[in-house]
Amino acid sequence: MSTYIFGHTNPDSDSIVGAISLAYLKNKLGEDCIATRQGKISPESEFILKKFGIKAPELKTSYAGESVYLVDFSDLAQAPHDIKEATILGIVDHHKLGDITTDTPLECWIRPIGCSNTIVKEMYDYHKVEIPKEIAGMMMCAILSDTVIFKSPTCTKADTKAVKELSAICGIDDYKALAMEMFIAKSAVDGASARNLNTRDYKAFDMNGTRVGVGQLEMVDISVLESRVGELFADMKLMKEEDGLHTILILLTDIMKEGSQLLALSDDISKVEAAFKIKLQDNQAWLDGVLSRKKQVIPFLQPQF
Question: Domain DHHA2 spans what residues (predicted)?
């Protein structure tokens, strides 16, 4: 019976590539594993998969009765609805420890670094398993994405080391040029609906019994969305009602300006203002230097609840 490996809902490139890279490693170690995903492939992930000629993981949203490995998350709010009916064999993650629990001991690789694929790279090294050229290239791109080409405050020496070693394996010396191509693909908004933009990298959190949603859209130039902010807010309102959220935030992150435009809707907007020590105008504010949701947003927002 196969074991399934997958990342969080609304999967980003770290979740997609992490499922693929970890599944390959586990199969090499004698486990029958299949990479899967919980949602649609983002434009960035599509770019990466096409660049290295790898098929996308199969879509699977129910895991009752299955054995699984989780990549890039450990929060129930980002898990399949029936995760409590699955057997979790392990977790590979670089976020805060979430509220998922297990009935049996598990393999756990959780490190405070920039990307889950950096941890998977360390697992390959630990087990002395050679990484195929194509998978190395995808892992390199996932790390460059999650660390915003090393600009994110989450980036560590382990991440930069992994990228350099993976670039040597895949034969791409100018990895920063490739990363810019990737971010340009990620920035494509023509024809995309407001819901698509709001949920490309969206995560729900249970903050002490309160449901909070935080999405992030990383772009080379967020000014192209100025005329669509009204659409984004209208869809945020719908998402808030549909998911029973107390608060929903969308971060429009400009990787060149190195900051984020915050869009916020909340039952108590003072909590958002207190979290970031700001005063919102028309439910918006510029957060200078904010590039990381997990290090610069969630740790400040959660204590307000």
Answer: 179-305
203 close to 8: Cβ distance less than 8 angstroms: yes
Q: Give the relative orientation of helices 175-186 and 133-146 as an angle to the nearest 10 degrees.
A: 70
What are the structural domains, with CATH classification, of the chain? 3-184 (3.90.1640.10), 194-304 (3.10.310.20)
Provide the token pair at 116.
């889950």
Kindly indicate the confidence band of residue 94, based on its pLDDT and cuts at 50, 70 and 90.
very high
Helix 157-170 and helix 133-146, axial crossing angle in degrees, nearest 10: 150
Q: What are the tokens at 81?
A: 């609805």
Each residue of 46-63: pLDDT tens digit? 999 999 999 999 999 999
* pLDDT given at position 188: 86
Rounded distance between C-alpha atoms, residue 149 and residue 239, angstroms: 31
- For residues 56 and 78, the answer to whether their CB atoms sit within 8 Å is no
Share of the chain above pLDDT 70, in %: 100
> How far is CA 59 from each of CA 64, 65, 97, 142, rounded to the nearest angstrom?
15, 17, 25, 19
Task: Give residue-wise pLDDT tens across range 222-276.
Answer: 999 999 999 999 999 999 999 999 999 999 999 999 999 999 999 999 999 999 9
- Give the residue among 42, 49, 47 at the shortest CA–CA distance from 9: 42
What does the alpha-carbon distance between residue 118 and residue 217 come to, in Å, rounded to a whole number?
22
SS3 sequence of 11-47 = CCHHHHHHHHHHHHHHHHCCCCEEEEECCCCCHHHHH
Chain Cα centroid distance, residue 181:
19
